[in-house]
Amino acid sequence: MDFSQDYVQIINGKSAPTEQTRHGVNPANKQALPPVPVATQQDLDNAVAAGKAAFETWSRTPFEERQKATIAYADAVEAHSAALVELLTREQGRPTEQAWMEVGGAPEWIRGLASIALPDEVIEDNEQNTVLNRYTPLGVVAAIVPWNFPIRLAVAKIAPAVLTGNVVIVKPSPFTPYCGLKLVELAQQFFPPGVVQSLSGDDNLGPWMTSHPGIDKINFTGSTATGKKVVQSASQTLKRVTLELGGNDPAIILPDVNVEKVADQIATFAFLNTGQICLNIKRIYVHEAIYDKFKEAMVKSVDGYVVGDGSQPTTTHGPIQNAMQYARVKTFFDDIEVQGWKAVAGGKIEESAGYFIHPTIIDNPPEDSRIVVEEPFGPIVPLLKWTDEKDVIERANNTVNGLGASVWGKDLDRAGKIAKQLQAGTVWVNTHFELSPLAPFGGHKQSGLGSEWGVDGMKAHCNAQVLFFKKTAA
Ligand code: NAD
């Protein structure tokens, strides 16, 4: 398979060309990338019909066979890693080394999920009754993927769907369609036609999918604003929904940390992927006793970053992925002057060949400022001072988001006690953004609904069905 050209959508096992095409843009140089299809409503109807037909057989295929096909798919994804890395950097902007992390994690995620079976649960078993709880697949799943992790988030939606006996239609983001389309094309070698399909569309396609009566579940990752529209639309047919949405993760730094080391790690997690991760650290609360030293150390790390084209070996931070996001992040930089914030690293955007912005730290802005309250989804982060433990916990929790949070300190008891009071789906002590396909991942509050991965994520692709055998009645 050639990953460098011929990007097609797959309906019922075959390429489904469209009259209209569109294209993505390489964010490092704003050059047009190759054409991709623009799906019509008829394409969606065809994919749903093919999915429904495939579901008849696939849902009755034994788990072990579905598992075997899925693991073979993971091996194939791994075998094509180098081509995927190159394509990911070109369409997403991520530096090569970090692209390897995303691509390398893809087969690991698929295999991890393939290790989770959902056997029937015996609720009661005696001379009179046997009562079982079974997990039966839902039908056609729509996997709606954002532009920041086009590979990991696609495979992490494909695998649980097909393992649980569902069929899946993958919709990559129009900003980053290329890797997603190739992943689905590759899947055709391992799954029967109609089991794993793709649609490549413009902004119409997502709403068509969420309102389509033939789709049974929406597995969505994206912004909180879009997530609300998804629920509204899906409610018309009571589709099952899983929503992985935006975050505004706090990190609380205790006074006993190794300042140099932790400041460097915090900078890494704040600016990884140029601040375009739902789980970037987005508010950094540093104890006042070490605030100045910590700030200095963090600035030193950030000043050493090399922002540029991700395909260059020296680049540590790539561009913002697209023009729309670049324009939004710029509004936070405009506010530096308007609001009188103090930038201690970065702070200015210079126009260039790509959507480049140097990582920027804002020194102790007011707690109610936009940079603290909103998710910029770009390389700009507030450093905030705290003195009282109860107060910093309240500030950390004072957000509509609840995706991730972390506490950093040598005193693990104290850090653990604080961690347990934070309102977030994943809370770390002395790290951030470490995930596992075996652990449920989801957001509290407006960061999501339900969870992906782990046993819970698999169950979210199923109806629970109770089978009640009355042994004595007949
Ligand atoms: P987005 O909400 O704009 O788009 C996400 C996907 O939804 C894209 O495929 C898009 O085409 C589609 N879409 C857009 N409008 C739609 C609609 N009305 N109905 C159905 N689908 C629609 O998000 P984005 O800008 O691509 O991604 C960035 C956001 O995603 C950030 O807020 C980030 O925090 C969040 N995110 C969350 C997670 C998580 O796991 N919680 C992971 C990555 C990103």
TrEMBL record:
InterPro entries xref list: Ald_DH/histidinol_DH (IPR016161), Ald_DH_C (IPR016163), Ald_DH_CS_CYS (IPR016160), Ald_DH_CS_GLU (IPR029510), Ald_DH_N (IPR016162), Aldehyde_DH_dom (IPR015590), LUC3-like (IPR044086)
E.C. no: 1.2.1.3
UniProt-annotated catalytic positions: E244
Enzyme class: oxidoreductase
Disordered: annotated span: 13-33
SUPFAM superfamilies reported in the protein's UniProt record: ALDH-like
Assigned protein family: Belongs to the aldehyde dehydrogenase family.
Keywords: Oxidoreductase
Name assigned to this protein: aldehyde dehydrogenase (NAD(+))
Domain of life: Eukaryota
GO MF annotation list: aldehyde dehydrogenase (NAD+) activity
Domain Aldehyde dehydrogenase: from-to ranges: 20-465
Catalytic activity: an aldehyde + NAD(+) + H2O = a carboxylate + NADH + 2 H(+)
